[in-house]
Amino acid sequence: MTIYPIWKKTLLTATCLTMVLSGSMIVNHTQTAAAATTQVSSSTSKAKKMTAIVNFAKSLQGKVTYKFGVNNPSRYQFDCSSFTKYVFASQGISLKWGSSSQSKQGVYVSKSNLKAGDLIFFSVSTKGKINHVGIYMGNGKFIHNTTGSKVNGVVISNLSSYTDRYITARRVS
Fold it and tell me: How far apart are CA 119 and CA 62, in angstroms?
């Protein structure tokens, strides 16, 4: 058995402790970097999914007709909420049918923090009551299935034209 002088034991202990601490700092740094990469990857995949939702909704322009209270994908006949339900389902996101029900899904988003793919809710008949839904596209525009004197189907509108009707928004992804 080798007997080390006290200063050699102290130096050896300090060296071992430094190696252990350095190793745990490397592990912690690696774990932190991996978590950050996962968050970026998750954000990127969410953004891609929301872009796909907006693009799919746009692809239905001219194909879909609005019918109140109807959810008939085989004939491309929807009301506003069955349209959003159908569009989000294309990306594996399940929504309930009904604008009021959809307004309770996901998380609240302020108007100033809207991102493409967020659901936006309006009052188009009874003031203050949610009875219409659309999908925010970005740049102050949204896409929705609606009917009116000049349109029956999927249209892109300016959010600023609906300021007095806007109620809330939700992020469901």
Answer: 21
